[in-house]
Write a structure and sequence with these properties.
The structure is a single chain. It contains 5 helices and 8 strands. With 186 residues, it is an alpha/beta fold. The protein has one domain: Glutaredoxin, CATH 3.40.30.10. The strands form 2 sheets. It has a 6-stranded mixed β-sheet. A two-stranded antiparallel sheet has the order 2-3. It is globular.
Length: 186
């Protein structure tokens, strides 16, 4: 093994293992029905790392192309119970705000598109927002993601302004009220 691979492999392996451990520990005894929060944490605005990722159809999506909109970027995986539970509420948000300057991007970690497509077929409502693939977790690394799910709201100027670590009920009035206030400029 060359020196570059030796230096990179332990760091990526440790990050993967810590994400898996955090997701597992966040569930009381691997509960089938994790409790989701309804709050997002305000951040001091900082430039969101730009990215271009492909969806299940091979179409590329670039974050900076969505400037002028609020964008909810959700990092998730099918093996993560709170990620699975919050997916329908992300679809609710997408449908509620699709005619307004608000977008949803779900960034899957490490998984194969065929596997994710199969999982989507198990949902009561197939997500209509873009499901993007970060197969090597490079984008999540740039965002400092340490556990799944993690979500960010990016403002129309391309800055991170809110963060949620752990599962959220995105269809809860606390969350939709926050989004409404952002869209109304309050």
């Amino acid at each position: 093994m060359n020196q570059t691979v030796k230096a990179v492999w332990p760091g990526r392996f440790c990050r993967l293992m810590s994400l898996l451990l955090m997701c597992w520990l966040s569930q009381p005894l691997l509960a089938a029905d994790p409790v989701l929060s309804t709050t997002l944490t305000a951040l001091e605005p900082v430039e969101a790392p730009d990215f271009t990722l492909q969806d299940m159809d091979g179409v590329s999506h670039t974050l900076s192309d969505l400037r002028g909109n609020y964008v909810l970027v959700n990092f998730w995986a099918t093996w993560c119970p709170p990620c699975r539970k919050e997916m329908p509420s992300l679809e609710y948000l997408y449908r509620k705000y699709r005619d307004r300057p608000f977008r949803v991007l779900a960034v899957n970690q490490w998984e194969d598109p065929d596997h994710v497509f199969s999982y989507m077929g198990e949902l009561a409502v197939f997500p209509s927002f873009p499901i993007l693939f970060d197969r090597k977790s490079v984008v999540s690394e740039h965002y400092g993601v340490r556990g799944l799910p993690t979500s960010f709201i990016v403002d129309p100027q391309g800055r991170l302004v809110y963060r949620a670590i752990g599962g959220r009920e995105f269809d809860h009035p606390d969350v939709t009220g926050l989004i409404d206030s952002l869209l109304e400029g309050r």
